[in-house]
Write a structure and sequence with these properties.
The chain is an alpha+beta fold. It folds into 2 domains: 111 residues, Type 1 dockerin domain (Orthogonal Bundle); 139 residues, no CATH class. It is built from 5 helices and 12 strands. β3 and β4 form a beta hairpin. α1 runs antiparallel to α2, α1 packs parallel to α4 and α2 runs antiparallel to α4. The chain is elongated, with a radius of gyration of 21 Å. The chain starts with a helix and ends with a strand. Bound molecules: calcium ion (2 copies). The site of one calcium ion (CA) has 8 residues, from α4.
């Protein structure tokens, strides 16, 4: 009961400020911690777990398999206030920008005694040769990372956290949808959503890497309405890897610079 009370008081703190989108790598069916299946891990999920813990205390069990799989966060075979607490701790870190990885990877990091440190670099460019928009689709950029020798085996997010994309012809700022990616160092990345050709979307393609190695992370574009210049804020975990250089992808004929 003491744990339950602790969970409830943390919960009320978290309810005030937390409604953050999941790191996109985690947005697939049956995600650990997302017990109500709305692609967000927040205090609401913790609340549902506490309710279920209380029901179980009273002898009733929610037998829904998806709920069961998502709710046993610490994988001890029981659904208790401890699972709710893990969600609150994770959601709080996501809310303050200290955690960009999925709940599962956050737990892996904890087990390994690992703390991520996120760094943001700006990637920018323009098509200087034509005084008009470029409406290519396909491979836009290649980001080259050096993976640290001491990197642990886990998944590390590579995210476009801000965009500034300008159109020459329409004189507007465009707002592409972003599909975030990750680098799996010695492990397989999570499955990513597919880009739909009708929507203006940028996708950071997840990939695998080895510690001490070099890895190229490509960024693709779909549904491009035409743009002439861009600035992208790219965030990654500098304790695991360092962004060494950027280059244009095979389908984009502008410029790519790193700042
Ligand atoms: Ca949820
Ligand atoms: Ca549990």
């Amino acid at each position: 009961m003491k744990r339950m009370n602790k969970a409830l008081s943390l919960l009320s703190a978290a309810v005030l400020g937390c409604s953050m989108l999941l790191p996109v790598s985690a947005q697939a069916a049956g995600i650990l911690g997302d017990v109500d299946g709305n692609s967000i891990i927040n205090a609401e999920d913790a609340t549902e777990i506490l309710k279920e813990a209380a029901r179980r205390g009273a002898g009733t069990v929610n037998k829904d398999a998806a709920f069961e799989a998502a709710a046993d966060v610490n994988k001890d075979g029981k659904i208790t206030a401890d699972d709710a607490l893990e969600i609150l701790k994770y959601a709080s870190k996501v809310g303050t920008g200290k955690m960009m990885a999925s709940l599962e990877d956050y737990l892996n990091y904890q087990k390994a005694g690992y703390t991520p440190s996120y760094k943001t670099r700006k990637v920018y460019g323009m098509d200087m040769t034509q005084q008009k928009d470029d409406n290519f689709n396909g491979e836009f950029l290649t980001l080259t990372f050096m993976v640290k020798d001491a990197a642990i085996a886990s998944r590390f997010p590579v995210r476009i956290v801000k965009t500034d994309v300008a159109s020459w012809e329409k004189v507007v700022t465009l707002h592409p949808e972003i599909i975030q990616g990750e680098v799996g160092i010695g492990v397989t990345p999570n499955t990513q959503p597919t880009m739909l050709s009708k929507d203006f979307c940028m996708k950071v393609n997840s990939t695998v890497a080895q510690k001490g190695g070099v890895v190229n992370v490509t960024v693709n574009v779909s549904g491009n309405p035409g743009f002439c210049g861009y600035i992208l804020d790219v965030a990654y975990d500098q304790n695991a890897m360092e962004l060494a250089s950027v280059a244009t992808g095979k389908d984009y004929h502008g410029i790519a610079e790193l700042n």
